[in-house]
Amino acid sequence: MKSILVKLFGFPATLIHGDTLVLDRWLWLKKRLPPTSTAEKLIDVGCGTGAFTIGAAIQGYEALGLSWDERNQSVASQRSLLCRTTSAKFEVLDVRQLDCRQDLISSFDVAICFEVIEHIIDDQKLMIDIARCLKKSGKLFLTTPNYHYKPITAMDKGPFLQIETGWHVRKGYTTQDLINLCLQSGLVVDSVSFCSGFLSQKITFIMRTLSKIHPLIGWGFILPLRILPPLVDSRLTKLMRWPEFSICLEAHKPNDIDD
């Protein structure tokens, strides 16, 4: 089903399956990731099924997506072929072992890491490893759950165990948490913002609830609603003073940092 949709509709179809908040993160990233004609290099740390890696390749980047999950990487490669993004590549790698890849050091103009660090106990090491992969002046774009979110469903309430089982090991991050991670990693914070507001969260609630009956029921029911968050969610969220679900970081590696 998912591959058929990608075959029919191309890249946009990669943004509207599975996690309903993927589209919000892509729209946030796209505003900050200008098209390039110089084949700048981008690394997607924890790329899932490759939507952001493929999107970056469409923007002109030589994009490398990393994930430990062989199945996800197979799906990502298949979707990349369907989208004809020859500059998107995928490799199987546990991102906790990113420091073992010496060939990646100081190689990338941009790094993205979306909804990954909350799964990693040693998040500081991961941030340091990502920083080492960046060239001087390289940019990092990162999203992770906002510590102050309101749980969408019971799964968001925890518990958050200090065991890496694939689920979150912490609820999320505050602005100060991200600043501290950057300070210890040699990165300079440019901006902290948020995405996935009230409407996106309520649509996610509907999908998760109906998907207990059958995934296609949940997906099909909310599909017509997907157009609404980009149009009205920002204003509605501010009006209701509702905390966004993800906190979003923009940072860079300064010129005077030793590789």
How big a fraction of the residues is strand? 15-25%
Radius of gyration: 18 Å
Instruction: Provide mean pLDDT, rounded.
Output: 95
Structural class: alpha/beta
- The total count of strands amounts to 7
CA(first)-CA(last) distance: 44 Å
Q: Main beta sheet: strand number and arrangement?
A: 7 strands, mixed
Strand order of the largest sheet: 3-2-1-4-5-7-6
The low-confidence runs, each spanning 5 or more residues with pLDDT under 50, are none
Number of helices: 9
SSE order, one letter for each helix or strand: HHEHEHEEHEHEHHHE
**Which outline best applies?**
globular
Topology:
Blueprint lengths: L1 H8 L12 H9 L10 E5 L5 H8 L3 E6 L2 H14 L4 E5 L15 E7 L8 H11 E12 L29 H11 L2 E8 L2 H14 L3 H8 L5 H13 L5 E7 L7
Parallel strand pairs: 1-2, 1-4, 2-3, 4-5
Antiparallel strand pairs: 5-7, 6-7
Helix pairs in contact: 5-6, 7-8
Question: Would you give an account of this structure?
Answer:
With 259 residues, the chain is of the alpha/beta class. 37% of the residues lie in helices and 19% in strands. The protein contains 9 helices and 7 strands; from the N terminus they run ααβαβαββαβαβαααβ. The chain has helices at residues 2-9, 22-30, 51-58, 70-83, 123-133, 175-185, 198-211, 215-222, 228-240; strands spanning 41-45, 62-67, 88-92, 108-114, 134-145, 188-195, 246-252. Strands 3-2-1-4-5-7-6 form a 7-stranded mixed beta sheet, sandwiched between helices. β2 (62-67), α4 (70-83) and β3 form a beta-alpha-beta unit. It starts with a helix and ends in a 7-residue tail after the last strand.
